[in-house]
Amino acid sequence: MKAKTVIRTSTIRNSLFFITLSTMICCLWMTCVPENVTAHSKNLNHFRKTRNLPDYLQEIRLLLEPKIAPCKDNLPILVMVTTAPSHTEQRSAIRNTWATRLPTLFILGLNGEDVQHLNDRHEDDLIVYEFKDHYQNLTLKMALMLKWASEKCSSVNYLLKTDDDILLNPWQLERIVQNRPDADLIGYRMVNAELDRHESRKWYLPSWLYPEEFVPEYLSGNAYLINGKHLKAMFYAAYEVPLINIEDIYITYLVARRKLGLNLTHEPKLYGFRPWLPLVSFYWELASVHSFTPTELLAWWSELLAMSKNVK
């Protein structure tokens, strides 16, 4: 009887020990730096573990970058495009259209594949980091863009962030930066924007990440310009601003406007939406338009190029 009691007591103690140990390991896992795979799932649970940018950055390696960065002193505009590994056609269309007039780089992560699987890796315009590339990681991708640009291209006059479905008008962009050489950030400014709390939607921002119902002001993420002199300050300011999943609100409002007090200059030509009539004269007046397929991009670029020869 005593032997059975001793065995039971020992078993209970062992069970309690392993339960306690498991609990400690679980707690440590929840609070420590997230691993590359678990931290970047397609939901937002990784933000429940940590919203501290350095926790993510220390886990991410730079895998590929241009041999020679196109970042000469006083370069008017450097375009950096957020793209995905599979968007080879989009990148090709951009290289053959507006990137012929604007120095352009592409930034992306990976989805389990190796850099060698990128068909256009030899173009010398890719910046590839080791993280899961999907929409919920766009804020992280933008932070990496700021990091790379502040280290390699801080002498540019303006960095233009844009996406790979955008038609840019270089002629209008050149006028914008010429007319505002000292602006902090330039873009299409959204004022008192109501946040989307519907979980199934693309721009869902949960209240536990951002409890306020409105954003006082931010720049639309399809295309905005950042003055080169602020790149380093914005990157390091992001270290102190808890991450959220909506990139343009995080970068242009939480980091640039609220944390650093930088001014957001409204530019109607960066509106982004297509004109109500598909006429080249309407497109010509815009600096950026979004939601283009590669085929559409090539077609409309030909129209803009022809228009540029007739407009002073």
Structural class determined from secondary elements: alpha/beta
Biggest β-sheet strands, sense, barrel:
8 strands, mixed
Query: Poorly predicted ranges (pLDDT <50, ≥5 residues)?
Result: 1-7, 16-41
Strand line-up of the largest beta sheet: 1-4-3-2-5-8-7-9
What's the number of extended β-strand segments? 10
The shape, in one word, is globular
Mean pLDDT: 88
* Count of individual helical segments: 11
Cα-based radius of gyration, to the nearest Å:
23 Å
How much strand content do the residues show? 15-25%
CATH A-level architecture of the largest domain: Alpha-Beta Complex
CATH class category of the largest domain? Alpha Beta
Distance between the termini: 102 Å
The ordered string of helix (H) and strand (E) elements is HHHHEEHEEHEEHEEHHEHEH
Question: What fold name stands as the CATH topology of the largest domain?
Answer: Spore Coat Polysaccharide Biosynthesis Protein SpsA, Chain A
Q: Considering DSSP H and I runs of 4 or more, what fraction of the residues is helical?
A: 25-40%
Q: How many domains, as an integer?
A: 2
Subcellular location: Golgi apparatus membrane
GO molecular function, one term: hexosyltransferase activity
Protein name: Hexosyltransferase
EC number: 2.4.1.-
